[in-house]
């Protein structure tokens, strides 16, 4: 695998970095986080105009058809700026499910709208007590009714659920073998109740209740025969995107901390000259590079068999989660009490790290998956 960026990838990186430096500074982010939706519709439109919402989507629906490397470049930059817009949720996780699902008409109608920034999607999969399971259907059921389905159930932790135009909902189809199907429904449809709340990093999620929600036959995006495969593949891409985002966060925390210890003086000299603090910074650097290596390893395994790909993705998530926790904690430690203030960015990185570590499975969950896969090999 060539670890050097191509000319086009370098241009993308420079363009994303320049935009975020100009439009997404720390104070601007604080204002966005305090808004009703917890993200900026104006920034979302900018992302669409810049082509970022269609980076990895195929050209036949208006996307750019890039590799996952380009998405990783984007998400790493988003991590450095702690971007709040649910780009990975809509343009990667949900878009991948639509793109690889069975409903070709929905694919051709909805994906161009996603790319143009006109449609925001959220995956409603998790249920109470599901513990990071993919394809949850124990509490959500779809019953055939006339020319469509009636859906009943409840979903939790739907990222940007209150702002989404459509939801992708996993549900057991009554009368069929156990397993989830994936349905597309309007978030504002009759029978859909949304209870939004603020997450630790300032973004928003929601719990969704479904009571006799009527959908047509064409609402079934992926049948139970393929749903788990498609959901797993899309989730693995989202996990790698979160690893790239974590990498960007670690780099930002190191840069902020390095600048601080070079400028803070104690005993007549900058504290950055103290060997103990230099060792801390070196350890933070090593942890960051370990996470970068695992991200590259995960990207290199995207075309491997599902079991092998799943093991590497879990390893990447566990390594990045542990590294991000260490780097952000050290950033707080080296800043002292100042690092915990609302007006200083390093504490916000720690909050976002804490939230992200639980998304798509925490460290212990992915280590458990690795241990289980080792026993069965």
From TrEMBL:
Alphabetic keyword roster: FAD, Flavoprotein, Oxidoreductase
Occurrences of domain Acyl-CoA dehydrogenase/oxidase C-terminal (ranges): 240-372
The keyword Repeat is annotated on this UniProt entry: no
GO terms for MF: acyl-CoA dehydrogenase activity; flavin adenine dinucleotide binding
Domain of life assignment: Bacteria
Alphabetical list of CDD domains matching this protein: ACAD
Cell inner membrane recorded as keyword: no
Cofactor or coenzyme needed: FAD
Acyl-CoA dehydrogenase/oxidase N-terminal domain span: 6-117
Protein name: Acyl-CoA dehydrogenase
């Amino acid at each position: 695998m060539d670890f050097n960026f191509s000319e086009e990838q370098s241009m993308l990186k420079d363009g994303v970095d320049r935009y975020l430096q100009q439009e997404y500074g720390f104070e601007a982010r604080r204002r966005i986080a305090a808004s009703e939706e917890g993200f900026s519709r104006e920034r979302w439109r900018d992302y669409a105009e810049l082509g970022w919402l269609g980076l990895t989507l195929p050209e036949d629906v208006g996307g750019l058809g890039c590799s996952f490397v380009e998405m990783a470049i984007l998400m790493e930059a988003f991590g450095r700026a702690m971007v709040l817009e649910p780009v990975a949720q809509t343009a990667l996780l949900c878009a991948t499910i639509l793109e690889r699902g069975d409903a070709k008409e929905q694919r051709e109608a909805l994906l161009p709208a996603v790319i143009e920034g006109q449609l925001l999607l959220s995956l409603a999969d998790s249920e109470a007590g599901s513990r990071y399971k993919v394809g949850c259907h124990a509490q959500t059921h779809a019953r055939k009714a006339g020319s469509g389905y009636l859906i009943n159930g409840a979903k939790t932790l739907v990222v940007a659920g209150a702002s989404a135009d459509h939801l992708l909902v996993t549900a057991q189809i009554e009368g069929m073998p156990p397993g989830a199907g994936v349905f597309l429904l309007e978030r504002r449809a009759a029978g859909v109740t949304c209870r939004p709340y603020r997450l630790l990093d300032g973004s928003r999620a929601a719990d969704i209740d479904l009571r006799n929600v009527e959908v047509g036959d064409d609402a079934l995006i992926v049948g139970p025969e393929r749903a788990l495969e498609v959901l797993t593949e899309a989730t693995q891409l989202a996990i790698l995107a979160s690893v790239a985002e974590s990498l960007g966060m670690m780099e930002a925390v190191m840069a902020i901390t390095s600048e601080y210890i070079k400028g803070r003086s104690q005993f007549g000299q900058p504290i950055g000259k103290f060997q103990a603090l230099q060792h801390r910074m070196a350890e933070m650097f090593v942890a960051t590079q370990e996470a970068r290596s695992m991200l590259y390893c995960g990207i290199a395994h995207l075309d491997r068999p599902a079991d092998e790909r799943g093991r590497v993705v879990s390893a990447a998530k566990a390594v990045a989660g542990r590294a991000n926790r260490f780097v952000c904690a050290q950033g707080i430690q080296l800043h002292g009490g100042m690092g915990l203030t609302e007006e200083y960015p390093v504490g916000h990185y720690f909050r976002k790290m804490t939230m992200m570590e639980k998304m798509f499975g925490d460290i212990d969950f992915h280590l458990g998956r690795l241990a289980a896969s080792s026993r069965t090999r």
